[in-house]
Amino acid sequence: MRLRRPGCFLSAQPAEMAAVGLDPICPFSRRERCFHVCRSACRLWLGCRLAAIFAETAAPGWRAGRVFAQQRGVWFCVTEAGERRAQIPPVLRDALAPGIGDWLALEPVGDHDVIRAILPRRSLLSRQGAGEATDQQVLAANIDALFLCMALDRDFNLRRLERILTVAWGSGAEPVVVLTKNDVLPPEQAAARLAEATAAAPAVAIHPVCGLTGMGVAALASWLRPGRTVALIGASGAGKSTLLNALAGAEVSVTGALDGGGKGRHTTTWRELHRLPGGALVLDSPGIRALRLWDGEAGLERAFAEIAALAELCRFRDCRHDGEPGCAVQAAITRGELDTARLDSRRKLARELAFAERRQSKALAAEEKSRWKRIHRDQRSRVAHRARLQDD
Ligand SMILES: Nc1nc2c(ncn2[C@@H]2O[C@H](COP(=O)(O)OP(=O)(O)OP(=O)(O)O)[C@@H](O)[C@H]2O)c(=O)[nH]1
Ligand SMILES: [Mg+2]
Ligand SMILES: [Zn+2]
User: Fold this and answer.
1) What is the sign of the dihedral through the CA atoms of 161, 166, 170 and 175?
2) How confident is the model at residue 28 (pLDDT cuts 50, 70, 90)?
3) What DSSP string describes 313-376?
4) Which residue's C-alpha comes closest to atom 12 of ligand 1?
5) Cα(377) to centroid(ligand 1), Å
6) In 3-state terms, what secondary structure has residue 380?
7) Ligand 2 centre from 230 Cα, in Å?
8) How far is the CA of 140 from the centre of ligand 2 (A)?
9) What sign results for the dihedral spanned by CA atoms 347, 353, 358, 359?
10) Greater confidence, 98 or 373?
11) Residue 78 vs residues 65, 100, 303, 313, 317: alpha-carbon distances, Å
């Protein structure tokens, strides 16, 4: 990947920012001309809160940078000195796992930067990595809103939506459901699917759009204000890159046709933060097939908010909604106000979460045990070494 757009103009004035469509108000300090806001048309937008943390962490000469892409052990960052390649020093390789969207403390060394620290994240979307049960893969960090993209055609699946919502609520970012390919169904069928999605995503904004014509896309503007970061997630072929291009008004990401079975072909192969002309940042990613749950009790409560509210009315605090007397959840099902499929889906996800948590605590315990074993072994060899020295 080549580095582009060197330089960014920290000294630009509010009028210049307005000229390129940037809001001169810092999202953290709420002040105009905040020193910490990068006034350029690049992707840097540190904000006062992080700037203060950075100032405390950083040694002289370090600078802040935000990861906008990553490839084979190289993190591509936007800094006030332009775009830079950054690497993790060997001693920190086990301790640091930066992801796209992360703010880093960087030490310039020659023509590249060395990653020294990850600044605190305000949201984190991650999944279990391929390795150990405790291995975490960062999908996106410091995201304000997650656009959960699901096409209204064969991609439409309420149970998958509930699963992604659980993960999204657990990330700390605001989920927004974007029903893509609004043009493929007759209006009444599209309206029926919209109603189903609304029931499966309580208290979440839902927007049907057509990425090809741009229909409905303008309604997403409130999440795309300058300095905001949005991540697009969904299955391959859901139309994420097409939506990004519609938002950008240009082809910034390659899109691809579906295969014969109507499935995506994983056209987007890496994650990258793109800057929209208006100043918002949008993360386009390869499609994700299954998002295994591994953390996120809180996410489950939010994703099934109506069940959580009903459960408070059950006679027993630990009601399992499984035939106990005075169960408000079962009563709502009997009245036809709650779909059994919702309760079943919640149960399935809760079981999966509990299983993941057990696996993780076992793996953590094993890690801790091997750490102590190592410490004791080192201690024994030090004692033996000292004894040998005294013998000599
Ligand atoms: N009819 C219709 N087709 C669309 C729409 N959006 C995307 N498509 C088509 O769907 C196919 C997949 O679109 P992409 O934007 O590449 O999908 P993606 O989600 O980025 O896929 P990956 O990069 O593989 O994850 C392409 O052939 C698009 O032209 C839409 O709103 N309406
Ligand atoms: Mg794509
Ligand atoms: Zn109950």
Assistant:
1) positive
2) very low
3) TSSSTT--SSS-TT-HHHHHHHTTSS-HHHHHHHHHHHHHHHHHHHHHHHHHHHHHHHHHHHHH
4) 237
5) 56
6) helix
7) 15
8) 16
9) positive
10) 98
11) 5, 11, 34, 51, 50
Residue 247 Cα to ligand 1 middle (Å) = 14
For residue 268 and ligand 1, the question of a CB distance below 6 A is answered with yes
Q: Which of 242, 267, 285 to mutate to test the pocket of ligand 1 (most atoms within 8 A of CB)?
A: 242
d(CA 202, CA 302): 8
Q: Which contacts qualify for 192-196: CB closer than 8 Å, 24 or more apart?
A: 193/152, 193/156, 196/158
pLDDT at residue 385 greater than cutoff 60: yes
pLDDT greater than 70 at residue 142: yes
pLDDT of residue 68: 87
Give the mean model confidence (pLDDT) for residues 160-178: 93
Domains assigned to the chain: 14-120 (2.40.50.140), 125-284 (3.40.50.300)
Distance CA 308, CA 169 (A): 14
Q: Is the CB of 65 under 6 A from ligand 1?
A: no
Q: What is the mean pLDDT of residues 73-78?
A: 89
State which of 154, 243, 255 you would mutate to test the pocket of ligand 1, scoring each by most atoms of that ligand within 8 A of its C-beta: 255
Specify the ligand 1 atom closest to the Cα of 180.
Answer: 31
Ligand 1 near 285 CB (within 6 A) = no
286 lines ligand 1 (CB under 6 A): yes
Nearest to 219 by CA among 147, 318, 308: 147
Residue 306 and residue 333: Cα distance in Å, rounded? 12
Rounding to the nearest 10 degrees, give the CA dihedral for residues 51, 139, 137, 302. Answer: 90
Closest CA relative to residue 145, chosen from 218, 208, 226, 230: 230
Nearest to 268 by CA among 252, 279, 281: 252
Question: Which residues touch 179 (CB under 8 Å, ≥6 apart)?
Answer: 150, 151, 152, 156, 190, 193, 194, 197, 206, 207, 208, 209
Residue 236 contacts residue 215 (beta carbons within 8 Å): no
